[in-house]
Amino acid sequence: MSSTPVLPDGDAAAEGITTDPVEEPVTIQGHWNFEYTYFAGASASRFFNELRLNQRIMGTHCPACDRVLVPARRFCDACYVEIDEWREVGTEGILDSFTILTTSFPGLPEPPTVVGYVTLDGASSAVLNTVHGIDLHDFDEAGALLLTRPRVRVVFSDKCEGRITDFAFELVATDA
User: For residues 146 and 95, is the Cβ–Cβ distance under 8 A?
Assistant: First the structure.
C-alpha cells in the first residue's frame, strides 16, 4: 500500500505541492466564541484586587536584578527569580510606545483611540492601556505629539471592578 497521496488534476511536483504529509499545510476554519473563567494566579489576583479595592497600582520587586515589574508577576522575566515583595508605583509615567487604533476591538473604546505602553514612576516595565486626551482629528499631528514620549497620569474609573480597564492614562498638561 502506498503512503503517497493521489492528487487529481496534474503533477504535484510541477504545481509545487508537496506530498510529504509532515510538510503538507493543514488549515482548519472555525470560530470560537465561548465564555470561560480562569484563575489569574496569586500575583495577578493581588494586582487586580489592589486596583479594585484601593485604586493603586502595585508591582513586584525582584531582589536579584532590582526591577519593579508592573503588572505584578510571580517570577522575574529577566532573571527567573521568584518574587514575593510588593511595591506601590507612581500614578504618572512616560508613554514608551503607542498605536492609534482605527478599527473596533471588543472591550475598547470606539475608534479612533490610542493604546500605549507606559512605564510608571518607580516601575521597570511598562503596562498597556488606553491613552485619553489626545486630539485624533489629524493622525500625523497626534502621532508626532505621542512620539515625544509625553508624561501621562493614571485616571481611575468611577467604579473599579478589578480589571485592567479600571484605569486609563491621560496626557499630563505641560506649561509649553
Answer: yes
Positive or negative, the CA dihedral 107, 111, 117, 123 is: negative
The predicted-structure confidence for 90-132, as pLDDT tens digits, reads as follows 999 999 999 999 999 888 889 999 999 999 999 999 999 999 9
- Residue 140, C-alpha cell as written in the block: 500625523
Cell numbers describing residue 138: 489629524
Instruction: Determine how many CB atoms are found less than 10 A away from the CB of residue 163.
Output: 12
Query: What is the arrangement of strands in the sheet containing 85-88, beginning at the earlier edge strand?
Result: 68-69, 58-61, 85-88
How is residue 173 written as a grid cell? Answer: 498638561
Q: Which residue has the cell 487604533?
A: 101
Of the candidates 97, 93, 66, which has an alpha carbon nearest to the alpha carbon of residue 79?
Answer: 66
